[in-house]
User: Fold this.
Amino acid sequence: MIVDMPNTTSSQIGKKLQELRDSGGVVALGRVLTLLIETDFPHIEEAVKAANSASRMHPSRIIVLADDDQPEGGKSFLDAEIRVGGDAGASEVVILKAHGAAANNPESLVMGLLLPDAPVVAWWPSACNSNPSASPIGKIATRRIVDSAEQADAPAFLAEFAKNYQPGDGDMAWTRLTLWRAQLAALFDQHLNRKVTAVEVIGSDLSPSAELLAKWLQLRLGVVVRIEHKLNGQNVEGIAGVIIHFADGELEIIRYGEVAEIQQTGSPDASVLLPRRSNQDCLVEDMRFLGEDEVFGEVLTKGFGR
Assistant:
């Protein structure tokens, strides 16, 4: 069910949610957190789709806040849409479209809609501030998730993000590396007695995940990690592979499509499924752990410098 509320207020939206709850259309019990999504108009549906899927693992109240700084006619008003039941997965979705000056105080728009006594996760699926903990929405949240891959200048964003990092900050570009890091750690356990002489990450020059993976390997292995942007003479998308050189051999894992081929000294060749992760997968993981990601914090602050 979808309820449209044009030219409304936060108070009226709260009353409508209560009416829906009283009539049995909305069940607040069982919601484990509030997910605040701050984005622009073009990214609303994409963000809601990912959040709805993630809510099946983490039942939530989803509040999407999008603003239009230059509305037609210069008017200031708030439109809202409430989605429940089959249109909201295992959650209830409130979409706030703030036009003009109505977007000047985002905190006041969402405060009355938060679930009481429940954690708040904030997610910016599109362009955002490099200091999320200082933003009006970020101040409300205990967990703040950005996506450096969606920024106009990802390296510059990561450098500023590193300066502003606070416990609870996260980056989907880092979460996309979980499978890579797990596979590399498992493989490297077989080579602990070997000395690492060089490391190469094969990744796109547009991929912040490649930069973060290189910094993680550099911190863990104690060697400078180079990033190569081509594989077999062709430019790559995302991350295509990692090559770790030892004094007496090497470990190579190269991804073709969703399958990675593994070659390592002293072991037979192998392959492993290593698919690209969707926003839904990353959001499920980020919502599962609401504390500080200490490893990410170390990689970001030490790798990119405060």
